[in-house]
Design goal:
Layout lengths: L3 H26 L5 H6 L6 H12 L2 H14 L1 H32 L5 H8 L3 H10 L4 H19 L3 H16 L3 H25 L8 H12 L17 H14 L4 H4 L11 H17 L3 H8 L4 E2 L2 E2 L5 H9 L4 H42 L8 H26 L5 H25 L5 H27 L6 H6 L7 H35 L1
Helix pairs in contact: 1-10, 1-17, 3-10, 3-14, 3-17, 4-5, 4-8, 4-15, 4-17, 5-12, 5-14, 6-7, 7-17, 8-9, 8-16, 8-17, 8-18, 8-19, 9-18, 10-14, 10-17, 12-22, 16-17, 17-18, 19-20, 19-22, 20-22
Length: 522
């Protein structure tokens, strides 16, 4: 539990944070006149500001709070997967995809990822299909809400459900008004805090290295030999090379196909800003991804993952680590409060982007195409967008409450299931639209549908068939024997299959078109 001094300090800090956020929301709201302003902003932002906004949005509370808990539980294998392979794949993909995506998005004035797809393939139906699937990202919002609740409730010794209600009301409330204009400013402040906190957290474990790196790993080995094994065959998520490396390479490369990530480049007004934007973003994000190593510090501090005789939930490891490590004198208390502020900044920065992008997608890519004829005034969409955010808030609260009360290992599993399935479906049309010359809708759509079917077959149907005794073969035996299913396996298989099908359709179609052209010339 937090001390009375920590509770008082955290209360003051949170109050100051609220005032700062509301100031920038009011400032941003003054420049938000229509749904376009809400989506991509009406201000001209520095590429450094946009880069920090992207870094804060892409490396969220999952990176600072949830994933370190998994690493504390499963050791080096988890760190290699989440701290090395995933960052390298995602940052490389970000650099490769961003330039072309932005160039086309600017030319057609795309506000969302689904509108980009619809414009690229000249299909309103395809855009609507992607827009409906975007609702899956509500699961990611739930992850961040749970992470925020764990940190704030721990700092204030407060009831988690009460904290959840306050956080939902505050966050969704201010996002009804500011949009992109305010989000970039708040993200810059949040990212700056996260940079400082990342350095503090990484420095907090220096005491564990007094016997060098080998001594550090020896301490982990004494606690549990599985913590230093690669792979960790006793874990439900890091059992072999495919699960730790190959699946994470595929997932990491595809993760940028999310609206709160790839569409950040649309905030840049000049092409000359892109290189600076990417350079700053990659450097800062790699620092953020490094924070997951702190999970190993936490395991050394809590060898049996208990505190005061009570088991520490995976999602609560880091919040307990911070409260315990920074509970000494005044100096330590202040640093601890700063770290707590950085952790909640990591959550708020991403949830702002998700609320903004998801509500904009629902408003402009679902409601407008389906009911636009009944809405005469364009300014009405701002009001509609606010109603959408209220509905999202209610749904997110109910889903988050369930994850707090009845988690399945970690809320990360729940969130990955929705998020991974979403970008598995979207990565093919995005990559085809950027890199394949004259890519047609049928090749991209075949990839999307394949990913949709394969993901849910692998994640839900195969485990059911395995446990029923119907499916008994190597792949099923390897990955579906545990109660916990790894969404990364389903996503990797779905993405690879989707590309195989999409490319096959593309080249077959191109060959047929070429044959028709030759025949017509004869």
């Amino acid at each position: 539990m937090a001390t009375s001094a920590q509770v008082i300090g955290a209360s003051i800090l949170f109050a100051v944070y609220v005032v700062f956020v509301l100031y920038f929301v009011i400032k941003g709201a003054r420049g938000t006149k229509n749904i376009s302003d809400y989506a991509v902003g009406s201000f001209t932002f520095s590429p450094v500001y946009v880069a920090l906004s992207l870094a804060a949005a892409m490396t969220s509370a999952a990176t600072f709070v949830i994933n370190p808990g998994l690493i504390a539980t499963y050791g080096i294998s988890a760190y290699i997967s989440y701290g090395l392979v995933f960052p390298i794949a995602s940052l490389t993909s970000l650099v490769i995809l961003t330039k072309s995506f932005r160039k086309y998005g600017q030319s057609v004035k795309a506000l969302t990822l689904s509108s980009w797809v619809g414009n690229k393939y000249n299909s309103k139906g395809y855009a609507l299909f992607i827009a409906f699937l975007t609702v899956l990202l509500l699961t990611f919002i739930v992850l961040i809400l749970v992470a925020l609740v764990k940190v704030i409730a721990q700092a204030l010794n407060a009831n988690q459900i009460v904290v959840l209600a306050v956080v939902v009301a505050f966050t969704f409330g201010y996002m009804m008004f500011g949009g992109a204009n305010s989000m970039v400013y708040t993200n810059v402040i949040q990212a700056s805090m996260m940079i400082l906190v990342a350095l503090i957290l990484l420095g907090s474990g220096l005491q564990f290295f007094k016997d060098g790196f080998f001594g550090f790993f020896e301490k982990l080995k004494i606690i549990d030999p599985q913590l230093v094994k690669f792979p960790n065959e006793q874990s439900p998520l890091f059992r072999d090379f495919f699960e730790i490396v190959i699946a994470q390479l595929v997932v990491g490369a595809a993760v940028v196909a999310q609206p709160h990530i790839i569409t950040k480049s649309l905030l840049l007004k000049k092409e000359s800003d892109v290189n600076k934007f990417l350079t700053v973003s990659v450097i800062v994000q790699f620092l953020f991804f490094s924070v997951v190593f702190v999970g190993l510090f936490a395991r050394l501090l809590f060898p049996d993952l208990t505190l005061n005789g009570e088991h520490i939930n995976v999602d609560s490891v880091i919040s307990n680590y911070v409260i315990t490590v920074f509970s000494g004198g005044v100096g330590s208390l202040l640093v601890g409060l700063l770290v707590i502020l950085g952790l909640i900044s990591a959550g708020f920065s991403t949830i702002e982007g998700l609320i903004q992008s998801l509500s904009t997608t629902i408003t402009t890519d679902i409601i407008k195409p389906l009911f636009g004829k009944s809405i005469k005034n364009e300014n009405s969409y701002i009001t509609i967008n606010r109603v959408v955010i209220i509905v999202m808030a209610v749904v997110a609260f109910l889903m988050s409450r369930e994850q707090i009360i009845n988690p399945n290992v970690s809320v990360a599993i729940f969130a990955q299931n929705g998020t991974y399935s979403y970008f598995s479906i979207l990565i093919v049309p995005l990559v085809f639209g950027i890199f394949l010359k004259n890519a047609k809708m049928k090749s991209a759509l075949s990839g999307s549908i394949t990913a949709l079917v394969v993901y849910f077959v692998v994640y839900y149907l195969l485990p059911y068939l395995y446990k029923s005794g119907i499916a008994s073969f190597g792949f099923a035996n390897r990955y579906f024997g545990d109660q916990v299913q790894n969404p990364g396996i389903a996503a990797a298989v779905a993405i690879l299959t989707a590309f195989a099908v999409g490319l096959s359709v593309h080249f077959l179609s191109r060959n047929k078109d070429e044959a028709r052209r030759v025949k017509s010339e004869e």
